[in-house]
Amino acid sequence: MALRSVLGAVVVAAFTLVSVVPVVAQPKTELHKCVPADLREDAITFKTEDGVELPGLVFGSGSSGVLLAHTQTEFICDWLPLARQLAEDGHQVLVYEMRTLLLRENRNRYDLDVLAAAAELDSRGASSIVAGGGGTGATAIATAAGKIPGLKGMFLLTPFKAFQTSSSDLDAVGGIGAVEVPSLVVAAQDDVIESGDTSYVEDTRLADHARAVAGAASNAKLEIVPGKAHFAELIDDAALSEKVRAFVRETSPPPTFLERWLMLIVGGVVLLLLFVVAVVVVLRRRAHSSVK
Predict the structure, then answer these.
(1) What is the DSSP letter of 43?
(2) How far apart are CA 113 and CA 111, in angstroms?
(3) pLDDT digits over 115-147, tens only?
(4) What is the CA angle 283-284-288, rounded to 5?
(5) Residues 6+ apart with CB under 8 A from 208
């Protein structure tokens, strides 16, 4: 009896402990307030390997996917014009909100954000992916390149050679060197890190970072443009924006009008065959039942 009493007390204590310990909420990043209300209504969410929930916006549809990743000092809205243009070109585009800097306990694994976004595109029918971004987003893409499903190409705007802090360890040079897909690497000649903590990068001249990243790639085109623009600011230039769109079209062509119709026809034929098979099965069962 004494043993049973002790066991009973342990069980009661365990249930009491569970009831008083608060449930720890999963880390979550919110869409920035710059996102218009009409887009918020259609926002999606997905989770990273380490359990961080990220919001995103999807434009367009189809098998040719494009992933857009902003940097720490930008907003998701800085990439919306390009996202819309790429969707008009026939691509399915996912632009997402990177994990917040406040999630220190989960490490700022921006590479895991990229992989989760790529997996989301894959689940939505994108059999090929072009990944693009700026700053830490671009660096994370290059770092994770070898693990992105169906990767066809990358465009990296002002990437860092590496981005290393106590909670992040990204290596664009090593990552881009491990894949053979075509890459477009862009930076401005006079762009430098002028203020703030620069301990996370080896060099404050960002054009040199771009040269190092492009130099490590087996198939990269380097564009060093005049001025000091960086990250998404670079594609404010219409000519450069068109180069990015052309790069995406060339590396992952969207289905043509004829191909889309053929896919619809094939899908319709498959559904018709399934219907015919189902009807035949039902008729045979009825015939068999009537014989009995």
Answers:
(1) -
(2) 5
(3) 999 999 999 999 999 999 999 999 999 999 999
(4) 120
(5) none
Q: CA end-to-end span of the chain, whole Å? A: 65
Tell me if 95 sits within 8 A of 86, measured CB to CB. no
**Residue 135 is encoded by which pair of tokens?**
């700053």
| Residue 40 confidence (pLDDT) above 70 | yes
pLDDT tens per residue across span 248-275: 999 999 876 555 556 557 667 777 888 8
CA 232 vs CA 38, 45, 158, 228, 265: distances in Å: 23, 23, 9, 12, 40
Burial 191-216 (b: 16+ CB within 10 A, else e): bebeeeeeebbeeeebbebbbbbbeb
Residue with tokens 């180069």: 243
Q: Please name which of 144, 57, 63, 123 lies closest in space to residue 131, comparing C-alpha atoms.
A: 144
The neighbour count for residue 153, using CB atoms within 10 Å, is 22
Q: Is 251 exposed, middle or buried (0-12, 13-18, 19+ CB in 10 A)?
A: buried
d(CA 52, CA 109): 10
Indicate the DSSP class of residue 210: H
**Helix or strand or coil: residue 48?**
coil
Provide the H-helix boundaries in the chain: 2-20, 37-40, 80-88, 110-123, 135-144, 172-176, 206-216, 238-251, 257-291
pTM over 0.85: no
Neighbours of 102 (CB within 10 A): 10
CB 223 within 8 A of CB 186: yes
